[in-house]
Amino acid sequence: MLRSYSGRSIHEWQAGRRSLRRPFSMALPIYPKAQRDGAVENLCGFTISDPYRWLEAGDDARVRAWAAQQDELFAAHRDGWPDTGNWRAMIEELSTFGVSDPPMVRGSLMFIAEQLRDDEQRRLVVVDGTSDRRVLVDPVELDPSRQTRLHAWWPSREGERVAVQMEVAEQPASDIVVLDVRTGEVMDGPLPRARNTSLAWLPGGDAFYYVNRVPTEELAPGDQRLHRRVRLHRIGSPPESDPVVFGGADAPDCYYGLVVSADGRYLAMTVADGPAPCNDVWIAELTDPQALRFVKTVDGRSIRANVLPRFLPDGNLLLVTDYQAPCGRICTAPRRHADPSAWRTLVPEDAQAPLDDCLVLDDPTLPRPLLLVARARHGVSTLTAHDLADGRPLTTVPLPGIGVATSLQTEVPHGRHLWFSYCDAATPAAVYRYHAATGEVEPEATSTARKPDSTISSRTVRYPAGDGTEITLFLFTPSEELDGPRPTLLYGYGSFGLTMRPLFSPMAAAWVHAGGIFAVACVRGGGEEGQHWHDAGRGPRKQQSISDFNDAASWLVRTGHTTPGQLAIYGISGGGLLVTAAATQRPDLYAAVIADGPLCDMVRYERFGLGCTWTEEFGTATQPEQLQWLLGYSPYHHVTPGTAYPAFLLAGAVTDLQTGEAHVTKMCAALQHATSGDRPVLMRREPDSAHAGSCASKERALATDILAFAGKYTGLSLRTRHAPPMADDGAHADEQPQGTGS
C-alpha cells in the first residue's frame, strides 16, 4: 500500500473522489472525472473528435476544479515515491553554481551572469580592469517573489550603458530598461512588449534598434500572431514615439535579427517566417538612422537557405550559410546585391562536422585578422583558427577535453581574445579564454574549472534506424563495469534543427550515480548532422523523428543495456511531443514517460502559445495534406481506449506562453480515460513558472520529481548509493565561485 495522503491511503482517497470501486484490484488507479463531450470538428474533409476541448478554457471553473483534483492526485502519488529525499539531496549536490557563460567584454569591462548556491535567479555583474566587481541587477532584490528573471542584456559598445530585459513568469510582458553602468541606476525605459527581441546599439550609446510587438489594443481579439516591428530608440525619448524602421501588417509572424557594423555605418537585418530554416538579409546604410532605405541583399527564402550576416572590417559581408552546404560553410560577399553567384567560399563545408559558430578577431595588435570556427563531429567540438583573408587553417585551438565548446565571445568592437564555455558529460561548464597572440588557453578568472567526475563514463555509439540510417546515441553510464540490463532514462528532442550534445546535466549525473544509464538520441528533425538532418524529420517527415526515437529504445533493449520494464523516456517542449508520440505508438516499449511542456494536440497546436509561428516545422491544419501529416502522429489523437499505457508524468506551467497549457490537460484526461494498465497517468502543474524554466528551487524540485517518478517505475533505487563529494573550490557567498547554475 502506498503511503497515506491526508490520513488516507491513495486508493481510499481516489475512491472517495469518484465514489467508485473497481472489483479485485486496488492497483488500478481511479482518476478525477473528466467529462467527455461530443465536440467534433470537420476540417478539410476529416471528421475529428475532440472530447476534451472544454479543458482549453483554463479559467473556467470546471477546468480549475478538475485541475485542482489532479494536483491532489499528483501530491498523493508523490508521497508514495521512494527515495525522493535522496534524489533531492543528490540534485543539490551535483548542481553547480557561479559563472558558466562567457563574458560580454566592452573596453575594460566584463559583463557576466552568475548564480551562487543560494540564489534563486542569476544576477548581472560587471567586472572592471582592476577585478573590482559590482552587481548591476539582482532580480530577487527587485522581486522577492522570485518570479522575475534576468532574460538578456546588451552592453553598449563603449560599455557605459547596458540594456537589460527582465521576464516575469506567466506574464507576456517582457520590458527593456537601460542602466548607467557606472551608477547602476535606471536611466531609460521601460520599453514594453519586447519579448524575444534582438537589439543592436549604435556607436556612442545614445540609441539602439530593437524589436517589439504592436500594442494589444491594436490587434483583433484573439490574434496570437507576433506582429513585430523593428524600431529605433533614442535614450531619453518616450517608447511610444520610437519610429518603426521595418515591418508591417503584411508580415505578422516574422522574426528579426539585428547587427550594426563596427564602424556604425551599416545595419544588417535577418527576416524569417517564425523559426523557418531560411531567411532573407536586408542591409541599410545609417546615413539617417531614423529613415532607413533597406536593400534585400540575400533572398534566402527563395533559395531555401539560412544566411547569417556579419560585417567584415572593409564593410563587406561574412555569411554563414547552409546554401548548397547542409552542414554549413562560411563565405564572403559584397555588401550590396549579394547574389549567391557572387559569394566566395572562405571555409568550405565539412560534411561530417556541421558548423556551430564562428567569430572574427581583428584587433590591430594581432599579426593578422583571424576567423575562429567551431564545429561538432557527432556532438564533440573542435575549434580552429583561420586566416580571415583567405580562410587558410592556421591552428587548432586546444580544448580542455573531449566535449562541447559553445557561446563564443570576444571584445567589441575589435577582438583579440576568444572566450568560450566548455563542458562534457562528466564535467560541469566553465569559461575559458584563448589568447590569439600566444595560442594559449586558460580558465577565465571569473569562472573556476572543475575536474571531471571519475564515476561517470561517456561514450558515443551509432545505432541503425529502421531504414538503415545510422544515428548517434550518447550513453552516460557508471564507470564501473555494467553487469546486465539497468534502469535507463532516454532523452530526445528532434525539432527545429536543435542539436543534442553530450553536456553535463545534474539530472543525468544523478541518474548515473544511482546506477542507471542516461541516453540521448540524436534523431532526425534535430541539427546534429546539418540542415538535411533537420529536413529529414520535419513537416511531412515528422514521423521519422518518432520512429528514430523508438528505434533507439529498441536498440537499447536489443543490446542488453535495459529492458522495457526498466526504460523511461523524457522530453521537454518539442521533445515532449517526441516522447508522447513515441509512447502512444509503442506503449509496450516503455515503463514510464515524462513530458515537460509538451505539444500533444497537433491539430490545434496553432491556436496555443506561439504555435501559429511553427507551421514551417510541423505543418498547418488548414491544409488537407498537411492536416493528414499531423493526424498521422498527433499524440492526443492516437490515445486508444483499452491500451495498457506506461506510467505518464505530464508536467507544465499553469500558464504556458510558448506551447500553451492545454496540451498537458487534454493529454492527461485522454490517457486517464483510455489506459487499462495499473501504472498512473499524472499531471504536475507549476504555478508562477514559465515554459521549460523557472527559479532554481523550482527547477531542482522538478528534477527531483522526474527522477523519483522515473526511478519508481524503472526500479532504480538510491537506498545504497550516494553522490560522491564534489571537489571543494573554496568558494563562498562573498567570493567568486565556479560552474553553472542548476
Summed over residues and divided by their number, the pLDDT gives a mean of 89
CATH class of the domain at 31-92 and 453-714: Alpha Beta
Give the low-confidence spans.
Answer: 1-26, 722-742
Helical amount: 10-25%
Strand arrangement in the largest pleated sheet: 32-33-35-34-36-37-38-39
CATH fold group of the domain at 31-92 and 453-714: Rossmann fold
Total of helices: 13
Intertermini distance: 35 Å
Quick synopsis:
The protein has 742 residues and is of the alpha+beta class. It contains 13 helices and 39 strands. It has a domain at 31-92 and 453-714: Alpha/Beta hydrolase fold, catalytic domain (Rossmann fold).
Task: Give an account of the 3D structure.
This protein has about 750 residues and is α+β, with helices and mostly antiparallel strands. It has a domain of about 325 residues: Alpha/Beta hydrolase fold, catalytic domain (Rossmann fold), CATH 3.40.50.1820. It is about 20% helix and about 30% strand. It contains 13 helices and 39 strands. The strands form nine sheets. The chain has an eight-stranded mixed beta sheet with strand order 32-33-35-34-36-37-38-39, sandwiched between helices. A five-stranded mixed beta sheet has the order 6-5-4-3-28. It is globular. The two termini are about 35 Å apart.
Keywords:
742 residues, alpha+beta, 13 helices, globular, disordered C terminus
Topology:
Layout: H1 10-18, E1 40-43, E2 46-49, H2 61-79, H3 84-94, E3 104-106, E4 109-114, E5 123-127, E6 133-137, H4 139-142, E7 148-155, E8 161-168, E9 176-180, E10 186-191, E11 199-201, E12 207-213, E13 228-234, E14 244-246, E15 254-260, E16 266-273, E17 280-285, E18 294-298, H5 300-303, E19 307-311, E20 317-321, E21 329-333, E22 344-347, E23 355-361, E24 370-377, E25 380-387, E26 393-396, E27 404-409, E28 411-412, E29 417-424, E30 427-435, E31 440-443, E32 456-464, E33 470-478, E34 488-491, H6 506-513, E35 517-521, H7 531-535, H8 542-558, E36 567-572, H9 574-585, E37 592-596, H10 615-618, H11 624-633, E38 647-653, H12 662-674, E39 681-686, H13 696-714
Parallel strand pairs: 3-28, 34-35, 34-36, 36-37, 37-38, 38-39
Antiparallel strand pairs: 1-2, 3-4, 4-5, 5-6, 7-8, 8-9, 9-10, 11-12, 12-13, 13-14, 15-16, 16-17, 17-18, 19-20, 20-21, 21-22, 23-24, 24-25, 25-26, 27-29, 29-30, 30-31, 32-33, 33-35
Helix pairs in contact: 3-6, 3-13, 8-9
